[in-house]
Design a protein that fits this description.
Layout lengths: L4 H23 L16 H25 L9 H20 L3 H17 L8 H24 L4 H23 L14
Helix pairs in contact: 1-2, 1-6, 2-3, 2-4, 3-4, 4-5, 5-6
Length: 190
């Protein structure tokens, strides 16, 4: 079965939305806070901070994934991405002051890509920054999968572990790009 870039992008976005729902359930005290962060959080307040930061980062990533997977035409949404670039820079500053180095790194993955989409950097650089963003996201998803699989609760090991493994596979698919197809005999080349 061949997976399209758009389908992979939709899959990542759906998994991000699922994860956002999990963090919201923790904030609403429907899921115990021990269900996230490997069971290492010491209080509900720490879980709310972690969940809020994660939700913002997931929301941040959705338009980036939509752009790199071809779900939207980047040039048609230039004004939106100018606003998103400002949001990304503010988010990086907030994460820096919260001492969330991993958050700063993750957000910084997408800043050049958003800058291209906003027209701040020439569009010819889009594919290069998309590749970098996708490969770094793949590595982050793999690390996240490892953390989930070593988590303290069955929910984190099974459910969230499966979610992040699938995300890693989808990021890998998008990052490796489309393999060059051999030209068919008799087809026009040019």
């Amino acid at each position: 079965m061949r997976l399209s870039r758009k389908t992979a992008g939709k899959g990542i976005i759906i998994l991000n939305l699922f994860t956002i729902c999990v963090f919201l359930l923790v904030i609403l005290k429907i899921l115990p806070y021990e269900s996230i962060s490997g069971g290492q959080l010491e209080s509900y307040d720490a879980a709310v901070r972690t969940s809020t930061t994660s939700i913002v980062m997931m929301i941040y990533g959705i338009p980036v994934i939509a752009a790199v997977s071809g779900l939207i035409r980047v040039k048609a949404y230039k004004k939106f991405y100018i606003g998103w670039l400002i949001f990304a820079l503010i988010l990086m500053a907030v994460l820096f002051f919260e001492a969330s180095i991993m958050g700063v790194i993750v957000v910084s993955f997408g800043v050049p890509l958003i800058a291209v989409a906003a027209g701040v950097i020439e569009y010819q650089q889009f594919n290069l920054f998309a590749k970098i963003y996708l490969w770094l996201s793949f590595v982050f998803a793999c690390l996240n999968s490892l953390g989930n699989l070593l988590g303290a609760t069955w929910f984190e090991k099974i459910i969230m572990g499966l979610v992040t493994v699938i995300q890693a596979m989808l990021f890998f698919y998008l990052a490796r790009g489309n393999p060059k197809r051999k030209a068919r005999k008799g087809s026009k080349q040019g």
